[in-house]
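Per your request, structure below.
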């Protein structure tokens, strides 16, 4: 990556691929493609990783979005990380359930029924999981409506916490079919994986791979236009310092939001319907509260789901290197329901005080992050994602607005990226 103002002479040539945006989707795509094609990554911000990074505050690595966790140790993203030398720790348990009066660690989703008090809740839970593998589902019923038919509060609270933590949406905004795909993948793709140096360590490794493979990365370079001629990509228009420059390429992979990608296109006739849809697709919004603790409250590197809480869906505890020696970092997550942001954060803090003994004696609030508007959790809620390929030859999208069905967070992003990589290789080879 060039330091300071980039030398415009370095980029006055043609590239095979230009990647717009250095979020985790753009970086993964560049890392996989730059070994085969001349690749340039353009990032408008001053740092890489987007919502998959962190910044250091008082020795704690506070996330810009993702909570230093990969959802599935056997998923496509975990395999991609392993292939480029990024290692991590697989969680000993799938999750811990923290109810108001009890705690249970479970080895996988199939055994989560043991956390329920009532026989009715256990029986209903088994039916839900069995339905994910053997039932027939439609897009027209919400997952919340489906669960409501069981009329069991424990069951509803369990999945409200799981969906809220994993997708950052209420149950009623997830289709039944998407919920069922999600359940199948939880069972099949393994426990959570925690990268040894957190999100920032993953981003630094991607950067190293791209540079060592001959790729180029420029920060503080906003792309203003995607140049299309006769239905084919011709390049991009970008601001390099005070200069507006056109850079030619054969293919563009956009890690910008779907709406921004479509807006930047110089020819919009082919995507007019997609533009209308982009204006109506809802983003997933959330709040993370960052807490310092002088006491180890949980086993490190495990997801803790909080079904009894009013707002918080779950949390994770970290120690070194993501927290100072002898201290612990707690990261919570809750769905942002709209309205007063400050009030929502206060309700999340009240949840912590009720769930964690001696919270006020041992813990300090480091800050609270809201993920909404131009910095959401996901650009599209789970199941409402855009296709990675647009009706313009050589133009693709990656990122959290293009997640694969049933695959959440980085797992969904990575599955979409791999689809793009296969198609780009085929296109550029032709």
């Amino acid at each position: 990556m060039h330091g300071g103002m980039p030398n415009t002479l370095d980029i006055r040539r043609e590239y095979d691929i230009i990647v717009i945006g250095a979020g985790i989707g753009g970086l993964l795509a560049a890392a996989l493609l730059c070994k085969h094609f001349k690749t340039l990554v353009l990032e408008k911000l001053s740092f890489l990783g987007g919502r998959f990074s962190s910044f250091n505050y008082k020795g704690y690595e506070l996330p810009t979005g993702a909570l230093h966790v990969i959802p599935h140790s056997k998923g496509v993203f975990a395999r991609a990380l392993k292939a480029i030398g990024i290692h991590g720790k697989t969680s000993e348990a799938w999750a811990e359930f923290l109810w108001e009066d009890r705690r249970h660690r479970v080895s996988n989703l199939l055994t989560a029924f043991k956390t329920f008090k009532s026989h009715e809740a256990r029986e209903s839970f088994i039916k839900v999981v069995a339905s994910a593998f053997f039932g027939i589902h439609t897009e027209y019923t919400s997952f919340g409506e489906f669960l409501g038919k069981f009329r069991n509060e424990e069951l509803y609270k369990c999945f409200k916490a799981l969906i809220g933590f994993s997708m950052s949406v209420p149950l009623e905004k997830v289709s039944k079919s998407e919920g069922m795909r999600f359940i199948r993948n939880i069972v099949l793709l393994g426990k959570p994986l925690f990268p040894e140096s957190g999100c920032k360590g993953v981003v630094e490794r991607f950067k190293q791979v791209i540079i060592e493979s001959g790729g180029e990365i420029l920060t503080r370079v906003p792309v203003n236009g995607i140049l299309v001629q006769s239905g084919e990509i011709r390049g991009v228009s970008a601001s390099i310092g005070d200069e507006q420059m056109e850079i030619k390429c054969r293919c563009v992979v956009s890690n910008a939001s779907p709406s921004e990608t479509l807006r930047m296109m110089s020819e919009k006739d082919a995507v007019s319907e997609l533009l209308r849809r982009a204006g109506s697709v809802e983003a997933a919004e959330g709040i993370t509260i960052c807490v310092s603790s002088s006491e180890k409250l949980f086993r490190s590197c495990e997801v803790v789901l909080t079904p009894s809480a009013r707002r918080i869906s779950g949390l994770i505890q970290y120690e070194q290197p993501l927290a100072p020696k002898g201290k612990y970092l707690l990261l919570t997550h809750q769905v942002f329901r709209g309205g007063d942001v400050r009030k929502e954060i206060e309700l999340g803090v009240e949840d912590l005080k009720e769930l964690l003994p001696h919270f006020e004696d041992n813990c300090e609030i480091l800050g609270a992050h809201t993920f909404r508007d131009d910095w959401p959790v996901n650009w599209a809620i789970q199941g409402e994602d855009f296709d990675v390929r647009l009706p313009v030859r050589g133009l693709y999208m990656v990122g959290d607005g293009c997640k694969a069905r049933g695959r959440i967070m980085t797992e969904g992003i990575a599955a979409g990226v791999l689809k793009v990589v296969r198609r780009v290789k085929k296109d550029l080879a032709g």
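The chain is about 30% helix and 25% strand.

Regards,
D.
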